[in-house]
Automatic annotation (TrEMBL):
Pfam families: ADH_N, ADH_zinc_N. One of its GO terms (molecular function) is oxidoreductase activity, acting on NAD(P)H. It comes from Oidiodendron maius (strain Zn). Keywords: Oxidoreductase. Belongs to the zinc-containing alcohol dehydrogenase family. SMART domains: PKS_ER. The keyword Nucleotidyltransferase does not apply. The keyword Oxidoreductase applies. This is Enoyl reductase (ER) domain-containing protein. Gene3D superfamilies: Medium-chain alcohol dehydrogenases, catalytic domain (3.90.180.10), NAD(P)-binding Rossmann-like Domain (3.40.50.720).
Amino acid sequence: MSNRAAWLKRPKTQLEVDDAPRAVAGPGEIVIKNVFVAINPVDWKVQAYGPPSHHYPSILGQDIAGEVVEVGSGVTRVRLGDRVIAHGIGRATQIDKYSAFQLYSVAFEIAVSPIPDSLPYEQAVVLPLAISTAASGLHQKQFLALPYPTTEAKPSGRTILIWGGSSSVGTAAIQLAVASGLEVVSTASTRNFALVKALGAKHVLDYAEEAVVDDIVALLRGSDFVGGFDAISTSETLNASADIVHRLGGGKLAKVLPGEPESSYYDVELGQVSASNIFLKEKIVGEAVWGKYVPAALASGKLLAKPDPLILSGGLPRVQEALDTLKAGVSATKVVVEL
């Protein structure tokens, strides 16, 4: 299995397609022949900003959908020929074989889920990093520590704020929270209200409305409020999210990016999530979400692969264009590349 990859060979340069090492599965690992990969903001940001901690040359990408072509020792949940999605953790480990933007990737079994035949690769590939990011914030002990999701969840009467419900992470967070028995209040633009409602949010409010913070507080006041998850985490959204949590009596607010709200609240505990930690540190979360919930929920149709993909065909040479497309801005869609 000869391999090729879209390499980032030097800081702040364009991707270059070139040969890559042959993918080999170690214990507890599989090799995937990648059919589709998806683009996330972290990909273009690493390319554009060249963080000092990043190694070169390197392969980017974390969202994978494809076919299992090799299975390492000890793997029990997938078999040769299975259609799967995977969260590639090359960025976290600084090991390129685990990254997405190549023809063949190695993945940890714990970060892989089979997908049903009815779910196209191009739709399924939007999920992996979003699921892991949402799971980190919702289920890790240091963040919101919600019960693990299940396909048979019963309403618990508890409530949660998820800011940015139509984003990739927001769509996953809403679904995991509902599958954990929570009632979700979320935000989106008016054109994405139907999407966010379809994912299970009880209430969706227009983030652009001047009174949105007051309206959310009014909806949630008096409920058993567990805290917030800011799936956008700009300074503006953190200001709003933190203010809401504070006005509801304080608590935890999970965020996906560095940064702080302009006002400091003594009773709001901010925490930045790290998607790979559910595989590398708190593995019980990865097992509960990826090992149990995701395969069952995809098979039953209870986990929707959203947002919809914007597809670029043409293989690895199109990955750079895909990065540029996402950097320019998209809404309620995810840029994916057919390999």
